[in-house]
Amino acid sequence: MSLFKVRNWWKTQCPTVEPAYDSFSLHCARLCIEEGEKDSIVVGSHSGQLCIYRPTGGNSNLPDLDAEDAAAEGQPAQGSPSNDPFENVFQHADVILEVQLALPVLGISSGKFTTTNKTDPRLQLAVLHPTKLCIFQIVTIDGLADHGDHTRLVTLYDHPLSKPAFSMCHGPFGGVKGRDFLCVQHLDGSLRFFEQDGISYERTLATDRHIPSPLHYLPRVDCFVTVAPSWVLECYRYQDVAEALESLRRHDPIWSLCVGEYALDLQVHQISNTESVIVMLGENNLLCVSDTGKVRFIKKLDYSPICFHSFVTGWYWEPGARLMLAVVSESGSLLLYESDQIIWSAQLGNVPVAIDRANVTGLPGALVTLGPTGALSIGYLGSEPELFRVPALNLAPFEIARCQKELLELEREIRTGVDPSDASIANAAAERDVKLYVNIAEDTVACTHPTNMPPGVAVEMCQLSMTVQVEPKLEVLQLTVTTDQAIGCSKDAFLFRDVEARSTERFDVWVFPAEPTVPATRTVTVYCSYTNKQGITRVVQKEVLLPLKLFLKPCQPSKEAQHKLTLSVVTAQQTNLGQLFAEFASDGVSTSALGLQPAGGGDGRKVTIVAAKSTNRFRVQSDELGMIGIVLECLIGRLQGREMIGPPSDGDAPARKESSKVLVTINGVPSIGGLLRSLQMHCELRKAVLKLETELESTTGQMRLFERRFVVKLQERSLRALDGILMLLKRNHSSVAKVCQQLKAMRQKMKLAQIDLAAILHLFHLCYTHSANAPGTKHLEHLTGLLTSSVLDSTEQSYEEMLLPVVRFLAQTGPLKNTGEQTDTFDEAFFYTAKQTNERAADVDVTVHSDLLQQQLQRLLGRVNDRFVAAGRTSGSGSGRNSVDFEDQPLPEAHDEEVEEADEGTRVEGSEFVALSSTASEWVNYEKMADLPL
């Protein structure tokens, strides 16, 4: 933002107050209506309004620069400063004409468009409509008494157009004197010329004109300049274009220049007796080209331009003439350039769509801006800056205790200022306005959408139905379906505008496995965000579980497994696996053990569920830690009645009500070694991806270098010199293709690693949430919130880098802090030193963050397990589990299973999972003592 602001001198609002204006809607010129007049401002809108303004500046508090000579001679100066400290007040006399035309106004121009009276100095007004070109004469009628003069618009003649128009230009085509001809450009790129004696003809330029662009006339060389759809600036001679016979016409431009972008606007100026310039405002560059096709300068813009205006200060035949450019950016800044050098920058009050320069009464060289809704203003470059003092940097060292104290104070302030009932009322109102119903079909069909599954694997999909009932009229409504990375969706977003009240709509999408792995969770969340007519935004969300048979299929149970977890169920009735997993039950399958493997199969991975013989206990075991999470979540949900299998029946409601009281506890957590190995694998794959991306950037840079050398050798027309370059091009192309294939494969491996890491984190989340000894405090909620089931890496940061500050905060603050343990402090200088001593700083960041995260996470989770074990020993409660409850009939090969289970409840150190106790009084006491807002 600029330090200075454009000072407002005069402003008004055009009759049309809707967005009906563009860069062609503003025209400033001296119409020669009366003697000694200044410039008039002509504004036309897409609604057909045509207005002519002539600001007087009678109440200006600025001195009239045109009246300085009169004041020097002792005469009173008109427009002298008044006592009014504000800008000029709009007066009715400032409007000399306001008329409503029958058609939208696309463009406005003024010139000598008639031959009736060559001595008449008045100019005519040309107005371009979509299907018609009209020529008007502005006539002033002297008023009677005190009513003043009356100005009206007289139609001289009009030209109907056979095709829709885009823009127009005028000039003395062919070098005529004292007359101006008109050229209209249609949407298809064809040109229509109109001469004053009624002659009109149509011509088409050489290249295809599918995208029209601004067209301008160069009077000095009698040529037209425009930009072709291929982003080439082309110059055509008028005599070649106007030639009637196709055989005699020159179809090619006299010169062309590749500009590489679309032209937002073109303007033409003569800067000397021997040269004219074309100034083009592109989407990213400001280009100045001479009328002979020579580039004078190219200015790279570091902002997005909206509009611009160019002018020449002084007369072009004088040596001191300067080319000035005024560009408006999308942030509302006005940047003034002299050629390619910026000389001034100021901030506008609003972002205009058109800018021009005019000499009005009392202010020569005024800046005229037109907003998208018709806000017309005249300003000047003031010299009163807005002083802004940069605050001093806070160089105090980071202290955990001080920041925690400030966080507590802010949390208490927020709690006192926010009423929790407001959120519940807003949520209830949101559910009344928009009702969202989500249903998943249990039946599956063959998948017809592309997936990353191996060839020959049968993939199925199920239908997700969403029904939205809208009560009030909404401005915007959006439906978003979010799934796990391993789950695909046929369409995940729906956007609607101006939704009618009391309307109902149903949307169906297909959900299917997209990756050759098991997802971390089967939960599909549907978000319905809407904005009502008052501008208030609300979000309604619903969750649904996908069928387990989409991802798993039954297989032979396994006797041994590396990872084991045991569930205890407190319920009055006995449950078996046949009832819980009815979709996998079949004849000949045991109800005490169930084996599940991925639907793709073929890789040997499986999960086994074993039911106890006489008590409600279950054991989930697998060699793959990431596969246990989805089965464990499904088992807990079905035991607690949150998920019912099969069609609904009359007895489901009492059963669900009874199952909601079921208490399911997990008597252990997996070893943290599996989580650390998954983090290490994710780190190695990210380093490999970064290495391949750097290699691809290097090879593509070499490709561009070889292509430039190829163009140089091609211009030399030496076939022998091309042999070496062609060999290098082919070899480099093969390298680029090879790196692209490797990068694609590595990104796929990294995606699978992210899914596996998310599944392991979700497993730890389930274990801590349903632990037999977990206290129901907010500290454990934030600990489980740390173990989310979504792992994503951004382009700038890895997942480890984003998770490390959270783990460090939990490890150094709150009930998990160990005062007797010396913790290493985070030193940013270590990272800077590592970057300077290593060529690949990105690899250093990934490795260091991953190592620190593994250390902190191992220390944090180990501390949690130790405190749970200590609390369990203090309370004296155990699992009370007996291994003889597990049947060994479904697993004939597991002969010593009872012996293996005998000491499962007593193993603490060195086992694959750690037993947890039932109390944690230390957590509760800490919460009462500090009340940390974690």
Write up this protein:
It is a single chain. The chain is an alpha+beta fold. Among the domains are: 426-548, Immunoglobulin-like (Sandwich), CATH 2.60.40.2550; 551-644 and 662-667, 2-Layer Sandwich (TATA-Binding Protein); 673-820 and 828-868, Glutathione S-transferase Yfyf (Class Pi), Chain A, domain 2 (Up-down Bundle), CATH 1.20.1050. The protein is 27% helix and 31% strand. It contains 15 helices and 45 strands. The strands form ten sheets. An eight-stranded mixed β-sheet has the order 22-23-24-25-1-28-27-26, with no helix packed on it. Strand 24 and strand 25 form a beta hairpin. Helix 8 runs antiparallel to helix 9 (719-769), helix 8 (672-715) runs antiparallel to helix 13 (841-875) and helix 9 (719-769) runs antiparallel to helix 10 (778-786). The longest helix has 51 residues, at 719-769. It is elongated. The chain starts with a strand and ends with a helix. 32% of the residues are buried. The model is unreliable at 60-86, 646-657, 824-839, 877-884 and 887-934 (pLDDT under 50). One of its GO terms (cellular component) is BBSome. Residues 677-769 form the PTHB1 hairpin domain. Residues 872-883 have a biased composition (Low complexity). InterPro entries: PHTB1_GAE_dom (IPR028074), PHTB1_N_dom (IPR028073), PTHB1 (IPR026511), PTHB1_hp_dom (IPR055363), PTHB1_pf_dom (IPR055362), WD40_repeat_dom_sf (IPR036322). Residues 1-385 form the PTHB1 N-terminal domain.
